[in-house]
């Protein structure tokens, strides 16, 4: 028998990824789905052998835990409706970007909350999710939240003040690796490779390097050194990067964190 009825409010891509991960990992959660577009909830429920709910009231009242998976601009209306049905002590998880725990705690008092920021690698069960506990979330709630998001990858607990740094490193981070892979493929074309071959070489090099990072006990620096022979071809490439690459990465992350902070301010106005 499932230990907890986990109901998703929202049936978008991230909700689907988390639901699929929970089923694939055989976690002890009994899943349910609600979406204002009922066909979305029904489709996900059918795929995952879960239950769909025709009304928000039914969904909230059936749940032990709620996972809020709607866009930030839809959250205010959703919380106003949820507040009429939620029970004191009923756990709430949220994956909406930009909205702090205090935003939820003013609208849903007496409810333990955990805020989560998974990245898009949840779609292949290889995410890293930053988790932040609300004021009423105890160790039991943290354990449950950890179980949910471990289904789509790894997790790390942070203080909410560090959310913008998390956004810069892991939230937006996948795009940096994709961008570098694009650049590597273009360099291959400049060196005379056809586009298809260059893209294949760059993509699989990225995949293999990621797998090495995942499976090796060595640090990224140690892995880099293992590939680099003194006076060799890799050393020549790294010398060309010089300080420019780490400086650019730092600048990009600072820009990302700054924009994250600005957007949070805009949402709070």
TrEMBL record:
EC category: oxidoreductase
Species name: Candidatus Avidehalobacter gallistercoris
Function: Catalyzes the reduction of 1-pyrroline-5-carboxylate (PCA) to L-proline.
GO molecular function: pyrroline-5-carboxylate reductase activity
Binding site for NADP(+): 9-14, 69-72
EC number from the UniProt entry: 1.5.1.2
Pathway it works in: Amino-acid biosynthesis; L-proline biosynthesis; L-proline from L-glutamate 5-semialdehyde: step 1/1
Family membership: Belongs to the pyrroline-5-carboxylate reductase family.
Protein name, entry field: Pyrroline-5-carboxylate reductase
Pyrroline-5-carboxylate reductase dimerisation domain ranges (all copies): 160-263
SUPFAM superfamilies per the UniProt record, alphabetical: 6-phosphogluconate dehydrogenase C-terminal domain-like, NAD(P)-binding Rossmann-fold domains
GO terms for biological process, alphabetical: L-proline biosynthetic process
Key words of the record: Amino-acid biosynthesis, Cytoplasm, NADP, Oxidoreductase, Proline biosynthesis
GO cellular component, one term: cytoplasm
Source organism superkingdom: Bacteria
Record InterPro entries: 6-PGluconate_DH-like_C_sf, NAD(P)-bd_dom_sf, P5C_Rdtase_cat_N, P5CR_dimer, Pyrroline-COOH_reductase
Pfam families (UniProt xref): F420_oxidored, P5CR_dimer
Compartments reported by the entry: Cytoplasm
Coiled coil residues, start to end: none
Domain Pyrroline-5-carboxylate reductase catalytic N-terminal intervals: 5-98
Keyword check for Transmembrane helix: no
Catalytic activity reported: L-proline + NAD(+) = (S)-1-pyrroline-5-carboxylate + NADH + 2 H(+); L-proline + NADP(+) = (S)-1-pyrroline-5-carboxylate + NADPH + 2 H(+)
């Amino acid at each position: 028998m499932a230990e907890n009825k986990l109901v998703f409010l929202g049936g978008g891509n991230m909700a689907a990824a988390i639901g699929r991960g929970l089923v694939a990992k055989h976690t002890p959660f009994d899943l349910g789905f609600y979406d204002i577009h009922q066909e979305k909830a029904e489709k996900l429920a059918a795929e995952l052998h879960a239950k769909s709910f025709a009304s928000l009231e039914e969904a909230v009242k059936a749940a032990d835990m709620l996972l809020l998976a709607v866009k930030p601009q839809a959250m205010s209306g959703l919380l106003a409706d949820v507040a009429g049905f939620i029970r004191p002590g009923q756990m709430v998880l949220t994956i909406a970007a930009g909205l702090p725990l205090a935003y939820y705690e003013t609208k849903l008092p007496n409810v333990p909350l955990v805020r989560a920021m998974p990245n898009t690698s949840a779609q292949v069960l290889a995410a890293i999710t930053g988790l932040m506990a609300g004021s009423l979330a105890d160790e039991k709630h943290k354990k449950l939240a950890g179980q949910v998001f471990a289904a789509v990858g790894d997790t790390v607990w942070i203080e909410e003040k560090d959310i913008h740094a998390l956004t810069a490193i892991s939230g937006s981070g996948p795009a940096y690796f994709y961008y570098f892979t694009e650049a590597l493929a273009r360099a291959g074309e400049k060196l005379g490779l056809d586009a298809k071959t260059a893209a294949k070489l760059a993509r699989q090099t990225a995949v293999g390097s990621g797998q090495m990072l995942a499976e090796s006990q060595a640090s990224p620096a140690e892995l880099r050194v293992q590939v680099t022979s003194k006076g060799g071809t890799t050393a020549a490439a790294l010398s060309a990067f010089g300080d420019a690459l780490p400086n650019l990465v730092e600048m990009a992350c600072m820009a990302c964190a700054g924009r994250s902070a600005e957007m949070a301010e805009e949402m709070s106005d």
